[in-house]
Write a structure and sequence with these properties.
The complex is a heterodimer.
Chain A: E1 5-13, E2 16-21, E3 24-30, H1 32-41, E4 46-51, H2 54-57, H3 62-72, E5 77-80, H4 86-94, E6 99-102, H5 104-108, H6 111-120, E7 125-133, E8 139-143, E9 148-153, H7 154-164, E10 168-173, H8 185-192, E11 199-202, H9 208-216, E12 222-225, H10 227-230, H11 236-245
Helix pairs in contact in A: 1-3, 9-11
Chain B: H1 71-81, H2 84-98, E1 107-110, H3 115-126, E2 132-137, H4 144-155, E3 159-163, H5 167-181, H6 186-202, E4 207-210, E5 243-244, E6 247-248, H7 249-256, H8 260-263, H9 271-277, E7 280-283, H10 284-287, H11 292-303, H12 327-338, H13 342-352, H14 358-368, H15 377-384, H16 405-414, E8 421-424, E9 427-430
Classes of the chains: A alpha/beta, B mainly alpha.
Amino acid sequence: MTSVRIIARLDVKAPYLIKGVHLEGLRKLGDPQTFAEKYYNDGIDEIIYIDSVASLYERNTIVDIVRHTAENVFIPITAGGGVRSVDDARELLRVGADKIAICTAALKTPSLISEIASTLGSQCMVLSVQAKSRADGGWEAYCDQGREHTGRDVLEWVREAEQLGAGEILLTSIDQEGTYRGFDLDLLRAVSSRVSIPVIASGGMGSVDHAGAAISAGGATAVAVAGFLHYEKSSVPEIRDGLRDLGHQVRVA
Amino acid sequence: MTKISTPTRPDYSAFAPDTKLREVKYGLPAEIRFCKRCVISNQRPNSSIEFKNAPNEHKKTINLDDDGICDACRVADQKADVDWAAREEELVELCARHRRTDGAYDCIIPGSGGKDSFYATHILKYKYGMHPLTVTWAPHIYTDWGWRNFQRWIHSGFDNQLFTPNGRVHRILTRLAMDKLLHPFQAFILGQKNLAPKQSILHDTPLVFFGENEAEYGNPQSDTSSAMRSRDYFTLKNKSEASLGGVPVEQLVQDFGIEEYELNPYLPANPDDVERIGTEVHYLGYYLKWHPQSCYYYAQEHGGFEPSPERTPGTYSKYNSIDDRIDDLHYYTTFMKFGIGRATYDAAQEIRSGDIDRDDGIALVRRFDGEYPERFLDEIFEYLSIGEDEFPDAYPLFEQPQMTREYFDALCDQNRSPHIWNYENGAWSLRNAVWHND
């Protein structure tokens, strides 16, 4: 049994850590660096940085934040938001990121997934998926932080991305994001049963039980936590100990 | 009366890049300037008294001071200095004066169940102990999520009266407002502003709460010094002075086959009735520090409010003004007339509220402002088309009763002001945009 990973997700709108509800109404919370270092010191397993407006504003700002974080934080860092080319990805790896998350650009140019996977390795190619349930069933993949339809079916998209060489999936439910009502377990189950690469559950965590359900019922191998930590509704040790009490193997901090 | 003619494209030479003598429509300032703090331009008109709005009305516009800062940004500055604890005391006293414990309503609150009205009603009931009747003026055409939010609002604990105006009258007035004023939202605004004061009279409940003061968005700063809305906006002694859709009431009755009683919902209250009841329209935003984004959080947390499933065309946001399908068109027409689209309004507000920086705002305006409102367009054109069977009197008064894309585009072009717009190589562009000096 491999350890379940607890990942702090930090959405950034430089120079601020931000957080929304349903990816909307972005609220400034402070310096992302301070939050990242606190979570690191508390024993978080990984950190995800997403420049949440890079695609929206068509600009890139995540590089500096990753560079500064990597100086003091020695756990895997995933960085994303506005990555449009192999060069963008390489630059992030060069300043200290371990993995690259791509959403919008991959939907526009799916071949970018295979380019990054073949040049830099599948292990660093994380497909970020912003999923929203459809009235007629299933889920649609969105881009631009849940603002833009793409018409792509999530389940078809994740299979295609896996075939193209994606090494991991960051799966965000727009419906649950920022609500603290728990992950979208149907979505998680549907995706994790269709791909063999690891799936990170994101969007909706409001209790340790939610994380437990994402793993045991949803088939996720990791949980991304954002507002639940940022607003100090919980802490890294509490989540880690809670998951252990639920019978999951976690990394010993 | 003369027929309402089909719009034709304007003389493009007036819009050539090198024209020196540029016509200025609507009495707007000839020189276009942008606020140095937000992204609004000096072309932004103040709130109109809609029942007096006539074609080619000269607009009063937002003031930019000697430092190039707009009144709305100055109002935002002043909010930082307000003693909000003292203002809340005033609210508590106001509520105490009006609160009723005899089983009657003690205040009327108009709203849609959007984030702002959700916040206002919820906090007045659950924190300040009021017994509100909420009243709603229906949108032209509900969006699915707008309807669901409306239901959630009611189910979070409120009595509501939904007033839905006669669909045919509403359509003809909206069509006229398009042709005469390029203002598809006018019929909605009229009803919305007048409904609550009139319900106040009907229910003998003097206290009416609106949310934010329009001065937050650029009406004269002096408007914020009072908690109360001027009665000019919702009373009129002589109804024959009113125009709807740019057409005098008398003519609507005589020529368009609308009966007088059918126009009542759009007309303001009688000032004598307002005097008798003592109707007072207060801005809750005067008493409580208003932050639209916080209202969204509040409505989501307490009522399960949902944003729209995609950004609104012409902007980036998903959480404000999302319940009427015709809204997309409304902001497109402000872009045509004043060069100010929905992204400009949204970004300016969020900059003032401290949610985004000016650089962010400029990027968003550049990307989204003036985007063609494709989403619900076919449905809206059908809504705006005048069928012979439904409108036997009005039908012959239109040279082309059918609203089409060509008609709409020509109408838009006709309403562009040459001092705002360039036309070159078959394409329109702004002569001055906020990102030009970036």
